[in-house]
Write a structure and sequence with these properties.
Chain B: It comes from Teichococcus vastitatis. Chain B: It holds the Pfam family NADH_dhqG_C. Chain B: It catalyses: a quinone + NADH + 5 H(+)(in) = a quinol + NAD(+) + 4 H(+)(out). Chain B: This is NADH-quinone oxidoreductase. The complex is a heterodimer of chains A (about 210) and B (about 675). Chain A contains seven helices and five strands. Chain A is α/β, with parallel strands linked by helices and about 210 residues long. In chain A, helix 1 packs antiparallel against helix 2, helix 3 crosses helix 4 and helix 6 runs parallel beside helix 7. Chain B has a seven-stranded mixed β-sheet with strand order 14-13-24-23-22-15-16. By secondary structure, chain B is α/β, with parallel strands linked by helices. Chain B has 21 helices and 26 strands. Chain B is about 25% helix and about 15% strand. In chain B, helix 8 packs parallel to helix 18 and helix 11 runs parallel beside helix 14. Classes of the chains: A alpha/beta (about 210), B alpha/beta (about 675). Bound molecules: iron/sulfur cluster and FE2/S2 (inorganic) cluster (2 copies). The site of one FE2/S2 (inorganic) cluster (FES) has 13 residues of chain B, from loops.
Chain lengths: ~210, ~675
Amino acid sequence: MSAPQHQEPVSFAFDEQSEAQIATILKRYPENKKASGVIPLLYVVQKQMGRQTGSAWVPRVAMDQVALRLGMAPIRVYEVATFYFMFNTKPIGRYHLQVCGTTPCWLRGSDEVARACRDAGHLKGYGDTSDDGLFTMTEVECLGGCVNAPILQVDDDYYEDLDYDSTVQLIEALKRGDRPKPGSARGRLCSAPEGGPETLLDIPLAEGK
Amino acid sequence: MAKVTIDGIEIEVPNGATVLQACEAAAKEIPRFCYHERLSVAGNCRMCLVEVEKAPKPVASCAYPVADGMKVFTDSPMVRNARRNVMEFLLINHPLDCPICDQGGECDLQDQATAYGGQGGRYMEEKRAVKDKYLGPLVKTIMNRCIQCTRCVRFATEVAGVPELGATGRGEDLQIGTYVEKALTTELSGNLIDICPVGALTSRPYAYVARPWELRKTDSVDVLDATGTNIRVDTRGPEVVRILPRTNEDVNEEWMADRGRFAFDGLKRRRLDRPWVRRDGKLRQSSWEEAFSVISEKMHGLKGDQVGAIAGDLVDAESAFALRALMRGLGSANTDCRQDGAAIDTSRRDFYLFNSGITGIDEADALVIIGSNPRREAPVLNARIRKRWASGSMKVAQIGPQGLDLTYNAEHLGEGPLAIAGLMDGSLGFAETLKAAKKPMVIVGRAALARPDGAAILAAAWDLAKAFGALTPEWHGFNVLHLFGGQVGALDAGFVPGEGGRDVAGMLQGGLQALWLLGADDIDTALIPSDTFVVYQGHHGDRGAARADVILPGAAYTEKDATYVSTEGRVQRGRLALFPPGEAKEDWRIIRAAGAALDVALEFDTLDALRERMVAFNPIFGVVDGRVAGGCADSSGPRASGAMGEAAFTLPLADYWLADTVSRASETMAQCSRIYNDPAPRLAAE
Ligand code: SF4
Ligand code: FES
Ligand code: FES
């Protein structure tokens, strides 16, 4: 299930970029409450792993480092990291395809998006990582972008208004190393109607002035 | 105080009490799983639901504070219905494998399902399955049975002070475990078994051994450390199958240390079950008559100062007293129970006791620990220190090895006696804390007294307590922490050198024609001159027996009615749970018979007569189950001799799991020692 090229590392150390982020994060909390920084720090770890290894996940040794940094018992960090599924406690592919399967997206065709991910990404289904280590596919709950359903979140970016073909195109682009511009696949501006605004046209703002 | 009405009964409870506590005060039983009075409130099992007037829904009584005028119903249709439903939910994922579960017959889930559950389950779908976890050699897990009450997580974090257990994952995937598969690093792990309300955490050595209703239960006390833990010995037929703690708020609350709980399989192995006599250099089985005739042949006519006796660490006060009487009858003043050579001054009892008492810890506000690791030496007492520390009302400092993990923060003041001087002259910052404290405590480890400058250290520790106001008519803050349950009793029984008598070192130097070892296994037997006639009386074929010329098989602590005195000076009675194996006999009887063989008139023929003599000798033996508490009437210190050295303190019990004769014979303890002493704690599962 997990890509073979990503093993549990024997050690983990924050790099310079992460250290800078940690310094900013820790400023937000009083010294005796710094354990509150556990979630931001786990994100820092996950990002750094993504940068360094091409798989954005949180290895156990890194959680131990977070615990050390925040003066917490390691188990308390494990509890947090395993509770939130935003943290990958197992190695994942280069691109994390997060298909929203909640009702609005489902009504608007998320099954097709999922099928496209399986076909183009060579994935067996949710939870699978492709043999080339490029893709991992997971099902997520409502991403809060229902107006532009169905949604596929790739790493941090939302791709919206998808159907089978546009999803395949997106995945093919990712394979080439491109990162298409996030947003609506049908060219909508944010969640405005296709082809431009249709209501409230007499309000100056709507005309873009 | 708040007035609340529980099922029509009006009672007053303190403000801030929970509804559950109020119900208990009104003698109403409230079922519960996650709530435990010695742990923080989690409120996650919902079994304790009750109806509160005007509340729209049932409330979880364990987490709901009382309010004045509140009306609570614990047996209304709403409550009964709520409990039934909670129970049904709890059982959805429970495997219902009671017939093969070791908790069966003493399971909260079983009992409460019977008392408060519905008729049967309606759940037909698949149940979740959870992988079992590895928590070490003592605690067995069957995680399918876990109802996720998190008592174990809270116990480990709060009481044991080892935050290694947790709940990982969420929702249906929530699992209790350590996440990294390793043995829990605590000496209190057995308590997890007691605290788990279901059969998820059970005793590994007791797995599939017995059903609770088959057991004979005998109340007794633990002697494998000096805490005086109250225990229940469960036997089936001729063997001990498990040992459980009994609640005693003043001593062990409801906890127990692992060695005391699990070493009992050592009671079945390497036992001395018949007398042995050495002939032509070889030990051979013999009879009691023969053994006594050899003793009388070898010892008759010896002068008093040619014989001596050493008592071990697990001896009961009766046998120590009886052997002392025998020795004095033979004209010998050579008796000593301090195998470790600790410089204990027995001229006053408070020179060698844990005078603050275990409950005194709950009042202390500053503590200095000298040359001791209470976590190893008295794990339950250490949990009490941790509790006080965690309340934020006590600061702790420690003099001894650096990097000691006591499960609480202790300021490290130094490695050796110099730090005591540093506190005295105020050069160490902790002196200020001590000065400001109302009830300061000094704990000096027994091992700190067992060194050449032990007497000076004893005196210095006393002076330290005195200098910081720990010795007042109201408060006695000087404490010696002993290591084993027989040590204080033997001191109280006067098993120390009499006028002109030799101590252990003196006896081992040579010059004795006959040496009587009463359970003494922790002396260097190689020092005993080869022509000394050695009698070993005890229950295990350990180091002492190996050197003996005559072996007299005695009874272990589970096999006799006997008195033990804990480190705080509490006199308690152990009771016979089963008979000694083979031809072994109660120890005081053996000594009585030896007296007859040696023509020494001992003035006791029965246990009661013996105990009467003991009370006459030391009235403290008459105060059973109690202790003489109170302040320090006379603050003049023990006699000092010599000056303190500079050598760093070293800690005793290098191997906690193999620290005594019984544990050394125990397979469970051998396994613990192997696993816990592994420098790289194994991550492997079973
Ligand atoms: S293992 Fe036992 S004590 Fe721990 S959460 Fe599960 S049921 Fe509760
Ligand atoms: S349902 Fe998919 S974003 Fe809300
Ligand atoms: S006992 Fe109250 S919720 Fe568990």
